[in-house]
Amino acid sequence: MSKNDIGLVGLAVMGQNLVLNMANHGYAVGVFNRTTSTTDEFVSSKTDEQKITGYHSLKDLVDSLAAPRKVMLMVKAGPAVDAIIDDLKGLLSPGDIIIDGGNTHFDDTNRRTKEVEEAGLLFIGTGVSGGEEGALKGPSIMPGGSPAGWPHVKSILQDISAKVGDNHDIPCCEWVGEAGAGHYVKMVHNGIEYGDMQLICESYYILKHALGLTNEELYKVFDEWNKGELESYLIEITRDIFTVIDEETGDYLVDKILDTAKQKGTGKWMSQHALDLGVPTTLITEAVYARCLSAQKDARVRASKILGGPDKKFEGDRDQFIEDVRQALYASKLCSYAQGYVQLNSAAEHFGWKLNNGDIALLWRGGCIIRSTFLQDIKAAFDKNPELENLLLDDFFRNAVENAQPSWRRVVATAVELGLPVPSFTAALSYYDGYRQARLPANLLQAQRDYFGAHTYQRIDKEGTFHTDWIRERRLDS
C-alpha cells in the first residue's frame, strides 16, 4: 500500500480545509482527530479524487506516512500542542518532522524547536493566515523552526499557499528563519491587521459622524478608495459590509451590530513584546486599547450621560475632507507597517534571526487578511536597501507621507475639535512627528529621574555618566 505524503492532526474547520487544499493539489493525506466520529464524518465527505485517509490512533497515522514522516498539528495553541508532541516523540524516528500550524506564541515555538531537536526530530512552527477560505483556497504561510526540516515540507506548503505575481506563480510561502521566527512574523502580521482594521474603523467613524455620510455614500467612498493606493482585502470587505441589509428589520446590518470588539490576543502579544524590546509600536498598541475600551460598553453608556464634549459641526468642504481622510488613512497605514518592521528588526537582532524583510512583504501579498497593493512597494524598498532601518526613510514612503501630511493633520485636528476619538490616527501622526525630531523632551525626563532617584544622566557635550544633587543646586525665589 502506498504511503501518505503528510499527516494532519486536528480537524476543526481550519484543519479540514488545509487537508482539502493538500488533497486538491494531489497529495495523499492521513488525518487524525481525538474525536473519532469527527475523523469518520470528514473522510466520508471527500470526493473520489481526494486521497484522504482517516486513522483512529496517532500510531496508525504515523505508520501510514512516507519517510521522512511529516505530521502537521492544527490544534488549539497551548498545552494540547505539547501533549501531542510528547506522544509523537515516542512514535517518530530521527529526521521526522512535526509542523505546528496553529496560532502559537513565538516563545512556545522557540522552546518546542529546541525540545523536538533534542529528541532527534525536526520542528516547523508556521503561521497560517487567511481564515477558513484561505486555508482551502490558498493561505499566506510563514514557516520557521528547524532549517533542516524546510526542504522536506517546502513543496507541500508552497503548493497549497496563495500565489501572486503577473503569472500567479509566486507562492506566499517562504522560509522565514530559525526557531519561532515564523510564528513571530505571523504575530506581527496580526498586529498590523489590528492597526489596519482600527484605522479603517476610525475613517468610517469620522465620515459618519463628522460628515453624516449614509451607508450608501460610505459604500461609494470605499469603492473608490479600493481602486487606488488603498486597494486591499480589508477595504474591499468594508465596502461590501455597507451594502448588507438585515432581513429581520430591513435596516443596514452594520448599524445593528453591538459596538464591542473581541480579540484573540495576538495583537496584545505584539504590544507586550514591543515593550520588552523597547520599540515604539504605538499605533498597534492603541488599536489593542481601542478594542479594550469598546468592550467597556456599559461603562461607556453610563459615562455618555455624564461627560460632555464639543458641540460643533463640520463646516468645511465635504469632498475635500473625504480626500483628507483617505490621505490620513494611507499615511497612517504606512506608519503602522514601518513600526511593524522596526519591531521585526529588533526581534531579529534579539534572537539572532536572519529575516528577509522583502520576502516577508511578499508572504503577505496574497491569501492573508492584510494583503494589499502597496506591499509590493515595501518589497521594492527592501530590495533597494536590505539594511533599511525604517520604511519611512525610503524615498517612496517618505514622499507619500510628506504629500499626505496636510490632509493627515487636518483630519486629526478636526476629529479633536469635534470630540471624535481617533487613537490610531493620532498615534501614527505622533510617531511620525516624534521620529523626525532630532531632539525630544527626554532630557527633562532624565533630569526628573536623576532628581528623585539618582538615576544619572548623560550629556550632549562630553562623555560619561553624571549625577547632580538637584536639591543643593536648585535656586528658589525667597
From TrEMBL:
GO terms for biological process: D-gluconate metabolic process; pentose-phosphate shunt. GO terms for molecular function: NADP binding; phosphogluconate dehydrogenase (decarboxylating) activity. InterPro entries: 6-PGluconate_DH-like_C_sf, 6PGD_dom2, 6PGDH_C, 6PGDH_Gnd/GntZ, 6PGDH_NADP-bd, NAD(P)-bd_dom_sf, Pgluconate_DH. It comes from the Bacteria. The keyword NADP applies. Pfam families: 6PGD, NAD_binding_2. SMART domains: 6PGD. Residues 182-471 form the 6-phosphogluconate dehydrogenase C-terminal domain. Its EC number is 1.1.1.44. NADP(+) binds at residues 10-15, 33-35, 75-77, 103. Substrate binds at residues 103, 129-131, 189-190, 194, 264, 291, 449, 455. It is an enzyme of class 1 (oxidoreductase). Keywords: Gluconate utilization, NADP, Oxidoreductase, Pentose shunt. Pathway: Carbohydrate degradation; pentose phosphate pathway; D-ribulose 5-phosphate from D-glucose 6-phosphate (oxidative stage): step 3/3. The active site is at 186 (proton acceptor), 193 (proton donor). It catalyses: 6-phospho-D-gluconate + NADP(+) = D-ribulose 5-phosphate + CO2 + NADPH. Catalyzes the oxidative decarboxylation of 6-phosphogluconate to ribulose 5-phosphate and CO(2), with concomitant reduction of NADP to NADPH. PANTHER family: 6-PHOSPHOGLUCONATE DEHYDROGENASE. Belongs to the 6-phosphogluconate dehydrogenase family. Homodimer. This is 6-phosphogluconate dehydrogenase, decarboxylating. The lineage of its organism: Bacteria, Pseudomonadati, Planctomycetota, Planctomycetia, Planctomycetales.
